[in-house]
Specification:
This protein is of the alpha/beta class. The protein has 8 helices and 13 strands.
Length: about 230
């Protein structure tokens, strides 16, 4: 039997060892995919580097492999349009905020720009009137519309066209054409209208909805670059 002093020393050592193990465990991050623990350097957004590399090689989003659609994954850059900072000329798809839109416009010099309204140009959502409540506009997208008023179009599923025009006038925008698209229609019907965008000219479509960008009719518009808009915070 150990003497009392030795017993206390052994217990203290065991406690210190346990504390050390817990401390090391606290510094580890658990991968959401393989459930293994790694140092912080090896885990990004909840996914370890090994699982991330494997899922990207499989053509799947590493962050939401079960929910992000396969069509959102770019085979050229191995990135997910929904989750990664993203730009691919081959896919004609870019993800970013208003500043990124302006940078792309400066590079592409599109003939026409087509802007979604709810949660893109404006903070409205769900088809509500922008005159109800307090709403703002994205300053970069507004400046773009002001810079090319004859070739900037609002393409929206919001039916409050008169209120949208009045709201934009209050924000200092020039008169813009507002096109309302019904639920069952594709926005490509407006964006690819040859009267608005000649087939030999480049167009830019800006919308916050990935579903609108992955619409087969929109993807078939080979002279239109699609921009998945993410509002800057």
């Amino acid at each position: 039997m150990l003497a009392p002093g030795l017993r206390c020393g052994a217990a203290a050592a065991a406690a210190a060892a346990a504390a050390g193990r817990n401390k090391r465990r606290d510094k580890e991050l658990v991968c959401n995919v393989c459930a293994k623990g790694f140092g912080k350097l090896w885990v990004h957004r909840g996914v370890c580097c090994e699982c991330e590399a494997r899922l990207r090689a499989e053509g799947r989003c590493p962050y939401h492999p079960g929910s992000c659609p396969a069509a959102a994954f770019c085979p050229h850059s191995s990135k997910c349009a929904a989750c990664d900072g993203f730009a691919c000329d081959a896919c004609r798809l870019t993800r970013g905020d208003g500043e990124d839109v302006l940078a792309l416009v400066a590079r592409l010099r599109p003939h026409a720009v087509f802007l979604d309204f709810d949660r893109t140009l404006a903070t409205t959502r769900g088809g509500g009137s922008p005159l109800q409540g307090q709403h703002s506009v994205d300053p970069d997208l507004l400046s773009l519309a002001c810079a090319m008023p004859e070739h900037a179009h609002i393409v929206t599923r919001n039916s409050c066209r008169d209120d949208i025009r009045a709201f934009l006038a209050l924000k200092g925008a020039p008169p813009l054409r507002v096109h309302t698209v019904l639920k069952h229609q594709s926005k490509a019907e407006v964006v690819c209208d040859p009267q608005l965008l000649p087939p030999d000219r480049v167009g830019l479509f800006v919308d916050d909805s990935l579903q609108e960008h992955l619409d087969p009719a929109m993807q078939a518009c080979v002279h239109v670059h699609r921009f998945l808009f993410v509002r800057a915070r």
